[in-house]
């Protein structure tokens, strides 16, 4: 009997109607100008709670218990709001909506965790809507970020784009937060955002909001450089089957562009299916697959000096791997001289200075697989428990092969990341729990793998049977004795020592590479075994119904990082390391002065179990409406960042006798024995090797790494003028304390003899995260103008600049940005008969600037770039389809977004779109 009652209850809840929903209003909505179906239009009963949305055909059904006549409120951004009186339930409604300007009507949520007009936001915020994605000339929404005001982007590969603001630009920025449908999109172990790897698919973007600068008071630790909030489409609102197929070609004119890849196809296929089963149940499924020949990083600049591979025996190219193994061959020369004093005229002139020689490196192309593949799938189920309470379950899974830049280049091969969520929400509250789980797959670490390959086919020096360096020295002396010039003698010596080398693509090379990359780092190989997980539970409540005189929002959050790398990324040999974070926040806002002045303040408490002291941060803001649609804003934010798991605990091999390290004393003393064998600044070690004078050595002063903080001030003005011009002007100034950067150091575990620093094979090099003692200042300004020119023409331009002062020259600070950026956009969303034609163009200009990659990978000048993207589209209204022809970097002038990153050419493409909302 109980089972029957339970079954009846379930069937009752899942019924398409309820006892109260006795009347049904049916209808359809169209665009009055084009006669197209108007989708995702809000239809609400005036002075009631009943409501729905039009589907992908413009149709709607609204159940209500109210009696006639009923007034419906019809609204959507991009259309003029309308009220319609229903006088009969039997006659289907046919409504026409008049398009309206969008400029100045945008609403945002992330700026204060409440819905508000973008113009009145208390902080700088940029926005991308679903319609922006549809009209964009860029193939992927992540590429659109490059044109936003205040945004810097580093492109490691076709599938890995890192976004940040306020100048701190690098691949994998741990001080930038990316949130997707309420979930922190960071990698659990590495702590940097995963870009689009498990983000929204191209067809599921409802809106993207990007906050520039500090946002810790609202979004917690690591929001120092900004936060990006991405929201997927609600299946109750956006329904139907949508398909987006992009076919393109890249690597055009490859020979003229010094591009080793032949012209290659580019594929991007996306499908979205969403269905509202009834008023209570809806679901969606998204999938996207991208494949292309990736851009190639082929910077041949010498990290060890001005020479080339033909002129410098110690050549170590930026994107040539294996050359980091470098040895002074003077001891071998001295041994040869001792064995044969007659060689003195040849050898003694060489001993006046060090004679460093690097092993022969492998270029990236042919070494790393440049076939980029990304696959992701997302599913979401929604159930409305009542009109005000909704339950959501979702899951996203991503896998593929892409390349990422950090202290070396990493080929993420077969990586897998999953993110799974359960949420219960209402208008005033939510409770959300989710987990992120990663599997690093067969990641290939370019630098150390190449060094190990070199050591596998021929050791550098084995003490008895010789080795690569003894052979090199032997041939160098023979060539010099035969009258060969010094430079040619070095080339001959390299050719001799490289006999039997494992050349790219040969069975020997493939066997050695596969063996090394399948052996964990902890066992002498280069394989990561990262299986880290993140668990997060949070809740928030809006007390607006209880506290009438002001807006009060409060929330709590708990997070667990379960670090599990089997001693390949963290010191977790015995068991996983658990790091807990606890936080609570409150935000208060009040409108005064006839509601023209909005005063808001936020406070947040955070505790991380790696650090003894909690952190309290705050934000205060004033927004004053000087005139109608004219807002002056001022904000102060005290933000902080606990060191990320990587900055605190990383223990990763990044080269032969070289490690990337966190700044925790647990590592520095226990693992690296800095307390017994002091570290020296690596630049001073190089000087010591050159001069032989121990007096040039400089000890590295270190301490247990601490949280960093910033006090940020911003003044801005935003306005809509004459309903045609929207402007936004701002300036900011920030002061950083305990600024976290990186330093290259070296020590010699097991000996106090500083002379051991002369031999690369006896000392160990580290790239260490540490706090700088100086107070660092950053400042900048920005301005943007959007112009509605009428007839669906829209133009945009923005200019922004960021600066860093008082930097610690011993720190690698990742402040990689030019003096200024200029971005422009011009397009039309519908022209011609029935407005079936549209186009959009964008221009991004950056002057040249200096770029430093943390971990000692490289530094240098990034050339200036002017990138033009363009597309033109045509709608097939009856077929509910569209064709788009376009190109990114249409001039095919190759450019790069950072040292050691790939050179990016054009992608020429054609896109077919079906039922795109």
UniProtKB/TrEMBL annotation:
It is found in: Cell outer membrane. Residues 393-890 form the TonB-dependent receptor-like beta-barrel domain. Residues 1-21 form the signal peptide. InterPro entries: Beta-barrel_TonB, CarboxyPept-like_regulatory, Plug_dom, Plug_dom_sf, TonB-dep_rcpt-like. Keywords: Membrane, Receptor, Signal, TonB box. Residues 118-227 form the TonB-dependent receptor plug domain. It holds the Pfam family Plug. Belongs to the TonB-dependent receptor family. This is TonB-dependent receptor domain-containing protein. It comes from Sphingobacterium anhuiense.
């Amino acid at each position: 009997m109980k089972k029957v009652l339970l079954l009846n209850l379930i069937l009752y809840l899942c019924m398409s109607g309820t006892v109260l929903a006795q009347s049904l209003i049916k209808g359809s909505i169209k665009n009055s100008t084009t006669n197209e179906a108007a989708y995702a239009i809000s239809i609400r009963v005036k002075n009631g709670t009943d409501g729905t949305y039009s589907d992908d055909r413009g149709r709607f059904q609204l159940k209500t218990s109210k009696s006639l006549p009923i007034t419906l409120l019809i609204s959507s951004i991009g259309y003029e709001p309308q009220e319609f009186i229903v006088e009969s339930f039997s006659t289907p409604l046919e409504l026409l909506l008049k398009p309206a300007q969008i400029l100045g009507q945008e609403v945002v949520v992330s700026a204060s965790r409440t819905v508000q007009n973008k113009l009145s936001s208390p902080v700088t915020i940029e926005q991308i809507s679903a319609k922006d994605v549809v009209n964009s000339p860029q193939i992927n929404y992540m590429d659109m970020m490059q044109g936003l005001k205040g945004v810097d982007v580093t492109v490691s590969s076709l599938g890995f784009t890192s976004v940040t603001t306020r100048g701190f630009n690098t691949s994998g920025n741990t001080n930038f937060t990316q949130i997707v449908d309420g979930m922190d999109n960071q990698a659990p172990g590495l702590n940097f955002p995963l870009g689009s790897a498990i983000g929204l698919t191209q067809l599921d973007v409802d809106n993207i909001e990007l906050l520039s600068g500090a946002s810790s008071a609202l979004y917690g630790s690591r929001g120092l450089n900004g936060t990006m909030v991405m929201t997927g489409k609600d299946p109750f609102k956006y329904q139907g089957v949508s398909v987006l197929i992009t076919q393109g070609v890249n690597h055009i004119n490859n020979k003229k562009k010094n591009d080793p890849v032949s012209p290659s196809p580019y594929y991007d296929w996306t499908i979205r299916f969403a269905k509202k089963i009834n008023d209570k149940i809806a679901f969606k499924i998204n999938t996207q697959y991208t494949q292309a020949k990736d851009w190639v990083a082929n910077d041949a600049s010498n990290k060890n000096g001005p020479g080339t591979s033909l002129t410098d025996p110690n050549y170590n190219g930026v994107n040539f791997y294996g050359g980091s193994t470098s040895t002074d061959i003077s001891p071998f020369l001295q041994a040869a001289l001792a064995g044969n004093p007659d060689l003195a005229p040849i050898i003694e002139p060489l001993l006046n200075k060090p004679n460093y020689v690097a092993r022969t490196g492998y270029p990236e192309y042919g070494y790393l697989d440049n076939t980029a593949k990304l696959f992701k799938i997302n599913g979401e189920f929604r159930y409305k428990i009542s009109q005000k309470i909704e339950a959501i379950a979702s899951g996203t899974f991503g896998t593929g092969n892409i390349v990422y830049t950090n202290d070396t280049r990493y080929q993420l091969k077969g990586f897998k990341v999953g993110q799974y969520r359960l949420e219960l929400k209402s208008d005033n509250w939510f409770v959300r729990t989710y987990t992120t789980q990663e599997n690093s797959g067969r990641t290939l670490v370019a630098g150390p793998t190449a060094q190990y390959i070199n050591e596998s086919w021929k050791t550098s020096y084995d003490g008895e049977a010789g080795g690569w360096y003894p052979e090199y020295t032997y041939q160098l002396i023979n060539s010099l004795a035969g009258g060969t010039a010094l430079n040619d003698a070095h080339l001959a010596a390299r050719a001799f020592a490289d006999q039997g080398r494992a050349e790219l693509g040969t069975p020997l090379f493939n066997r050695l590479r596969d063996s090394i990359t399948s052996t964990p780092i902890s066992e002498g190989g280069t394989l990561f075994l990262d299986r880290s997980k993140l668990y997060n539970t949070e809740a928030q409540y809006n007390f607006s119904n209880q506290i009438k005189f002001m807006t009060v929002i409060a929330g709590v959050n708990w997070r667990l990082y379960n670090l599990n790398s089997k001693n390949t990324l963290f010191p977790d040999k015995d068991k996983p390391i658990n790091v807990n974070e606890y936080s609570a926040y409150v935000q208060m806002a009040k409108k005064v002065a006839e509601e023209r002045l909005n005063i808001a303040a936020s406070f947040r408490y955070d505790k991380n179990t790696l650090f003894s002291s909690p952190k309290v941060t705050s934000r205060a803001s004033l927004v004053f409406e000087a005139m109608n649609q004219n807002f002056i804003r001022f904000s102060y934010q005290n933000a902080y960042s606990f060191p990320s798991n990587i900055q605190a605990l990383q223990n990763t091999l990044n080269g032969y006798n070289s490690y990337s390290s966190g700044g925790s004393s647990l590592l520095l003393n226990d693992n690296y024995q800095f307390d017994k064998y002091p570290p020296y600044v690596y630049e001073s070690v190089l000087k010591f090797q050159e001069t032989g004078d121990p007096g040039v050595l400089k000890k590295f002063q270190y301490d247990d790494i601490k949280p960093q903080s910033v006090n940020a001030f911003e003044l801005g003005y935003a306005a809509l003028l004459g309903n045609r011009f929207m402007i936004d002007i701002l300036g900011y100034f920030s002061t950083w304390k305990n600024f976290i950067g990186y330093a290259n150091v070296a020590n010699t575990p097991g000996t106090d003899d500083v002379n051991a620093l002369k031999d690369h094979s006896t000392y160990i090099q580290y790239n260490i995260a540490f706090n700088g003692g100086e107070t660092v200042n950053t400042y900048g300004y920005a301005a943007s103008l959007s112009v509605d020119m009428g007839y669906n023409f829209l133009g945009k331009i923005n200019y922004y600049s960021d600066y860093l002062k008082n930097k610690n020259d011993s720190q690698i600070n990742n402040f990689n940005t030019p003096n200024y950026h200029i971005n422009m956009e011009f397009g039309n969303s519908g022209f011609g008969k029935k407005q079936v034609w549209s186009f959009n163009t964008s221009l991004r200009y950056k002057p040249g600037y200096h770029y430093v990659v943390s971990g000692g990978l490289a530094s240098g000048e990034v050339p200036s770039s002017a990138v033009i993207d363009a597309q033109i589209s045509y709608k097939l209204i009856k077929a509910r389809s569209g064709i788009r022809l376009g190109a990114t970097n249409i001039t095919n002038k190759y450019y790069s977004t950072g040292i050691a990153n790939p050179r990016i050419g054009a992608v020429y493409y054609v896109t077919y779109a079906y039922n795109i909302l």
